[in-house]
Amino acid sequence: MTSFKYDQFVAFGSDSAGLERILRGLQSLTAILTTYPFLLALLPAAGLPLDAALILAALGPLKGHLNLTRRFIRFFWFLNSFGASYNLYTAVPSQGPGAGKGAEVWLDILRFTLLGLYGGLESLTLPDLLGVPGLAPFGAARTKALNVEAQRFWFLALACGIAANVVRMTKAFAYAPVPQHGEGYGTGQSPAVDTDNLGAKEKKEGEGEEPEKMDLNAERQRLKALVVKRREGMRRWRRQVAFKVKTLGRKVVSDTLDCLIPGVILGWVNIGPGAVGIAMLVTTVLTSRDIWERCGADVAVKRGLTQ
């Protein structure tokens, strides 16, 4: 039987999003190697019988073909973005569409709308990039202008995504478990239980009746159990917050680095193509993790490892 990692990689490569990430990683490598050709000089030193000059000459056309292939894979993704935006806008509110939503939800609605516009323009200009005679409805100049506008929409969508995730991270820290009553009400802290005073009180009233002493011991044990339970709840909450903030932080870093790509095309960021390629490679790895884990979960279900 094939290994779990093998099946996970097959699922990742068969998934449209996973395949697009693989091609994106290869495209980023072509940009890096084209900008830093001295890396190709390491191939003979590593014992690989490859001609660095021939590889360098092939990297330019290869980069264009990889980009074009990725755009074919993403051809209908803009419909999913518009659908996600519409579903978020019409989801759940009891007072009517668009009511009772937080800032992060509105930012997500705007983000998916902008991503839909970005993807729609990319798909619209795809025939012009094929180089087929007679199949260029917009022409080279207008196609270039539309693609620049698409990059503008992508940049704004990334900015909305960053803002939405920052809001979520802030809210993750803001809301702690709240006791139902007592000293810790509204603060997320457990009420202090002075067990020493309880013991002193028990000793002072030791001359009382035996049933009262038993009731006092039972009450002290109940309060101790309550404190332990609330402390465990706080520890569980902290673990959940740490996991959520880590996941959201990874998305913020990824979106921030991705902003460099449209920023360079729009002239808003002044860095070289090599730096763009490195940023693209890093974000490809970061954004591939969720897809990789999803494919792993699917493989686990097929193998009967999880319910």
TrEMBL record:
<dbReference type="GO" id="GO:0005778">
    <property type="term" value="C:peroxisomal membrane"/>
</dbReference>
<feature type="region of interest" description="Disordered">
    <location>
        <begin position="184"/>
        <end position="213"/>
    </location>
</feature>
<feature type="compositionally biased region" description="Basic and acidic residues">
    <location>
        <begin position="199"/>
        <end position="213"/>
    </location>
</feature>
<dbReference type="InterPro" id="IPR008733">
    <property type="entry name" value="PEX11"/>
</dbReference>
<keyword id="KW-0576">Peroxisome</keyword>
<dbReference type="Pfam" id="PF05648">
    <property type="entry name" value="PEX11"/>
</dbReference>
<feature type="transmembrane region" description="Helical">
    <location>
        <begin position="72"/>
        <end position="89"/>
    </location>
</feature>
<keyword id="KW-0472">Membrane</keyword>
<keyword id="KW-1133">Transmembrane helix</keyword>
<keyword id="KW-0812">Transmembrane</keyword>
<feature type="transmembrane region" description="Helical">
    <location>
        <begin position="38"/>
        <end position="60"/>
    </location>
</feature>
<protein>
    <recommendedName>
        <fullName>AoPex11B-like protein</fullName>
    </recommendedName>
</protein>
<dbReference type="GO" id="GO:0016559">
    <property type="term" value="P:peroxisome fission"/>
</dbReference>
<keyword id="KW-0962">Peroxisome biogenesis</keyword>
